[in-house]
Amino acid sequence: MKKLFLFFALASTVAFTSCSKDQDDTDAILGTWVSEFSSTPTGGATTSYTDEWVFKNDRTGHYKEMMNDEVDYETAFRWTKTEDSYTVDYVDEEVGIDTFTIGEELGHTTLEEGGEVVALKE
């Protein structure tokens, strides 16, 4: 009986310890979001374009645009969460500010702006 009591005491400690994870670690925006498309003009070579946002737990991140797998533009940003949206304030002031929401489409988690899908979560 004593061993059974110790077992339940230990199991309870483990259960309560595992439930204390910080909620910020599970924010839906965290991670890498990618938008990819390509264009092939008639009689021309295919050009591929990729936009990538990486959202970090410390509320910073970076954005880059690539053409044919070569970085064409890159900037850092800070992000904040307000209710059900995320505001991204880019370091490069010419880019401005974006407001994103998280959605679902065809089984994929989507990054959306103004109701339009911008990127998919990797």
- Approximate helicity band: 10-25%
For the record, the count of structural domains works out to 1
CATH architecture: Beta Barrel
Strand content is: over 45%
Structural class: mainly beta
Ranges where pLDDT stays below 50 over 5 or more residues in a row are: 1-24
**What letter string, H or E per element, gives the SSE order?**
HEEEEEEEE
Helix count? 1
Question: Could you please describe the fold and organization of this structure?
Answer:
By secondary structure, this protein is mostly beta strands. It has one domain (24-121): Lipocalin (Beta Barrel), CATH 2.40.128.280. The protein is 14% helix and 54% strand. It has one helix spanning 2-18; strands spanning 31-39, 47-55, 60-67, 70-82, 85-90, 97-105, 108-113, 116-121.
List keywords for this structure.
8-stranded antiparallel barrel, disordered N terminus, mainly beta, 14% helix, 54% strand, Lipocalin, globular, 122 residues
Brief write-up:
The protein has about 120 residues and is mainly β. It has one domain: Beta Barrel (Lipocalin).
